[in-house]
From TrEMBL:
Transmembrane stretches, start-end: none
Species per Swiss-Prot/TrEMBL record: Pseudovibrio exalbescens
Family named by the database record: Belongs to the short-chain dehydrogenases/reductases (SDR) family.
CDD domains associated with the record: SDR_c (cd05233)
Name this protein carries in UniProt: Dehydrogenase
A GO term for molecular function: oxidoreductase activity, acting on the CH-OH group of donors, NAD or NADP as acceptor
Domain Ketoreductase positions: 6-189
Length: 261
């Protein structure tokens, strides 16, 4: 699944799944724009990935249209083209349905779904122009979650935003299909990122996660990156409008499974 010569923008690329996707893309031969709001972590990621290939950090708040326009412009100025967009940037804000503050809900929705919309629309306009000029269609990959299907009562904004992400994937895939532009999503389950650190350090929480995971383990960011590499490659040329769930078998589960101590 070579990505040699392709140019990819990956949002939220400074750490976690976004960084893993960026690393996989660079190793597979892509030139990568690392977009993130955390400038310090983004520059560290850039330095690390430049030891493997071609990567450039761009500071960006995906919830701001001007930032997104500047991101796309900088990608084109740096590499001359864009072939892949990975909408990975996302945040969480805890709060029960009855007590969640309006501003917290707005903030999560603004980054997680408005940000994906702004990035998708801006990059898609470039993709369409490229196709109309005889170029090869690009593709978009949206990072969803199993919480787009199931739900956590204390993560109202996150769950709602990821449900919306699945619909964004479908509607944009249908809109862009006539141009040959593909849009797909990935729905991770429990993945071994910084967000999972508190769970891994608490035996009760760890067992709770594993009890609903038939494969009996937490996933690795590299496993999500592998799916992204596939969806960005020519091997996925007839796949669009789909969300692939990588959750160790959690979604089909109708009961809990025993967990070894």
């Amino acid at each position: 699944m070579s990505l040699a010569g392709k140019v990819a923008i990956i949002t939220g690329a400074a750490r976690g799944i976004g960084y893993a996707v960026a690393k996989r893309f660079v190793v597979d031969g892509a030139k990568v724009i690392l977009a993130d709001l955390d400038e310090k972590a983004g520059l560290v990621a850039e330095e690390q990935l430049r030891e493997l290939g071609d990567a450039t950090f761009v500071h960006c708040n995906v919830a701001e249209r001007l930032d997104v326009r500047n991101l796309v412009a900088e990608a084109l100025d740096t590499y001359g083209e864009i072939d892949v967009l990975v909408n990975n940037a996302g945040i969480v804000a805890g709060g029960d349905f009855l007590t969640l503050k309006e501003e917290d809900f707005d903030t999560v929705m603004s980054v997680n779904i408005k940000g994906a919309f702004l990035c998708s629309q801006t990059v898609a306009k470039h993709f369409v122009e490229k196709v109309e000029n005889g170029g090869v269609p690009g593709c978009i990959i949206n990072m969803s979650s199993i919480n787009s299907v199931v739900a956590i009562p204390e993560q109202v904004g996150y769950c709602v935003s990821k449900g919306a992400m699945n619909q964004l994937t479908k509607v944009s895939a249908l809109s862009l299909a006539p141009y040959g532009i593909r849009v797909n999503g990935i729905g991770p389950g429990s993945i071994n990122t910084e967000l999972m650190a508190a769970v891994n350090s608490d035996e009760t929480k760890r067992k709770r996660v594993l009890s609903r995971t038939p494969m009996g383990r937490v996933g690795e960011p590299s496993e999500i990156a592998g799916i992204a590499a596939f969806l960005a490659s020519a091997d996925a040329s007839y796949i669009t409008g789909q969300t692939i769930f990588a959750d160790g078998g959690r979604l089909p589960l109708n009961y809990t499974v025993p967990v070894e101590s």
